C-alpha cells in the first residue's frame, strides 16, 4: 500500500481542523459488539440530538484514523447544528487502509472490517436510539471503497451512501482471498465490466437479498492519480446496474454543480455521479450538500 499511502496522506492531512467550538467531544468505545478484525470505533454525539437521530458513518482514507477524519471533515460541526450522530471507524490494518479485498469483508455477515463497522451501527441503535431508516455511510479514498462495499454487502443497514474517490464494490477483490490487498488492475482503472456484471458483483455479496439498495452518490476527480478516473465510470455502471438505470444515458446533466467545474449526472432518484474536472484524488467533502443527499436537511 506504500505508493497509495504516500499519494494520499499529505493532501488529506493538510485540512485545517474543523473541530473547534463543538458542543461535545470525540469519544472511543472498546466493546461495541462482534468485531473480528479489531476495527476501532470513535463517535461524536452532540450535546443535543433529535429524537431517533440519524447516523452518519464517516470512513477515513489510508494513513488516516477515525480521529483524523473527525478533525478533517465537517460532520461533527454539522451534527451540532442538525442533531445527528457520527461514527468514525478506525482501520486496524498496517498503513490504515481498509480491507476491501477479502472474501469475508465482501460477503454479508461473513466477517472482515465491514462486519465490525456494521456492529458499530447496531451499537449506535441500542445506545442512542438511532433511527434504523436513517443510517448513512460516506468516506474518502479507501473509506470511499469501503462505502461502496458496505452499500453492496449490507444494503439492509444503510439508506444512502456518498463516495469520495473510490472504486466499484468488489473491484479490489483478491484472487487469493488476501486481506487488505492492493489491486493495481483496479486502481489503474483496468478492471472494467458491463453494468450487469458489476451489478452481479453486488448481488453476490448478499445472495438472496430482495430489499432495496442504498441511494448512492459517487464523486471522482478527473485527474485522480491514485484511483484513476476510469473507476468513476465503473462505479456508476455498477449502481446503474443495481437500480436498472442506463449508465450511458443520465436523465439529467447539471454543469457547475455542486461547485464550479463539477458536473453532476443524475441517473434517477437513487444514483448521481459527480465528476470533478481538474480535481485530483482529494475531492473535498461537501458537508451540507451531503446532508441533502442523506435527507437530513
Ligand atoms: C484484482 O481485481 C480484479 C477484479 O476487479 C480481479 O479479477 C483480480 O483477480 C484481482 N487481482 C488480484 C491480483 O487479486
Ligand atoms: C425476501 O427475503 C426474505 C428474507 O430472506 C424472505 O422471507 C421473503 O420471502 C423474500 N421475499 C420475496 C418476495 O422473495
Ligand atoms: C474551472 O476551470 C477553469 C478552466 O480550467 C479554471 O480557469 C478555473 O479556475 C476553474 N474554477 C475553479 C473554481 O476551480
Automatic annotation (TrEMBL):
EC number: 3.1.1.-
Lineage top rank: taxon: Eukaryota
Keyword Chloroplast: no
Localization terms from the record: Secreted
Annotated PROSITE patterns: PROKAR_LIPOPROTEIN
Primary location recorded for the protein, binned into one broad class: secreted
Keyword tRNA processing: no
Molecular function GO labels: carboxylic ester hydrolase activity
Biological process according to GO: xylan catabolic process
Span of the signal peptide: 1-21
Alphabetic keyword roster: Carbohydrate metabolism, Glycoprotein, Hydrolase, Polysaccharide degradation, Secreted, Serine esterase, Signal
GO annotation, cellular component aspect: extracellular region
Pfam families hit by this protein: Esterase_PHB
Homology family: Belongs to the carbohydrate esterase 1 (CE1) family.
NCBIfam families reported in the protein's UniProt record: esterase_phb
PANTHER family in the cross-refs: FERULOYL ESTERASE B, UNNAMED PRODUCT-RELATED
Job of this protein: Esterase involved in the hydrolysis of xylan, a major structural heterogeneous polysaccharide found in plant biomass representing the second most abundant polysaccharide in the biosphere, after cellulose.
This protein's name: Carboxylic ester hydrolase
Organism: Schizophyllum amplum
Amino acid at each position: 500500500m506504500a505508493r497509495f499511502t504516500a499519494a494520499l496522506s499529505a493532501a488529506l492531512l493538510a485540512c485545517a481542523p474543523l473541530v473547534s467550538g463543538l458542543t461535545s467531544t470525540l469519544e472511543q468505545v472498546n466493546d461495541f459488539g462482534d468485531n473480528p478484525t479489531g476495527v476501532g470505533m470513535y463517535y461524536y454525539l452532540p450535546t443535543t440530538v433529535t429524537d431517533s437521530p440519524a447516523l452518519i458513518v464517516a470512513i477515513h482514507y489510508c494513513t488516516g484514523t477515525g480521529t483524523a477524519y473527525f478533525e478533517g471533515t465537517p460532520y461533527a460541526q454539522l451534527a451540532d447544528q442538525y442533531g445527528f450522530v457520527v461514527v468514525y471507524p478506525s482501520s486496524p490494518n498496517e498503513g490504515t487502509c481498509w480491507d476491501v479485498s477479502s472474501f469475508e469483508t465482501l460477503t454479508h455477515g461473513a466477517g472482515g472490517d465491514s462486519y465490525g463497522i456494521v456492529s458499530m451501527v447496531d451499537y449506535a441503535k441500542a445506545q442512542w436510539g438511532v433511527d434504523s431508516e436513517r443510517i448513512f455511510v460516506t468516506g474518502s479514498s479507501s473509506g470511499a471503497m469501503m462505502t461502496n462495499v458496505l452499500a453492496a454487502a449490507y444494503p439492509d443497514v444503510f439508506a444512502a451512501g456518498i463516495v469520495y474517490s473510490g472504486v466499484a464494490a468488489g473491484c479490489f477483490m483478491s484472487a487469493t482471498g488476501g486481506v487488505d490487498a492492493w489491486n493495481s488492475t483496479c486502481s489503474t482503472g483496468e478492471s472494467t465490466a458491463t453494468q450487469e456484471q458489476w451489478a452481479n458483483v453486488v448481488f453476490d455479496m448478499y445472495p438472496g437479498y430482495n430489499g432495496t439498495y442504498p441511494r448512492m452518490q459517487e464523486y471522482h476527480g478527473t485527474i485522480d492519480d491514485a484511483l484513476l478516473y476510469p473507476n468513476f465510470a465503473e462505479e456508476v455502471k455498477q449502481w446503474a446496474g443495481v437500480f436498472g438505470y442506463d449508465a450511458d444515458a443520465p436523465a439529467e446533466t447539471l454543469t457547475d454543480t455542486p461547485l464550479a467545474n463539477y458536473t453532476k449526472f443524475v441517473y434517477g432518484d437513487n444514483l448521481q455521479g459527480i465528476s470533478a474536472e481538474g480535481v485530483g484524488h482529494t475531492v473535498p467533502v461537501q458537508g451540507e450538500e451531503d446532508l441533502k443527499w442523506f435527507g437530513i436537511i
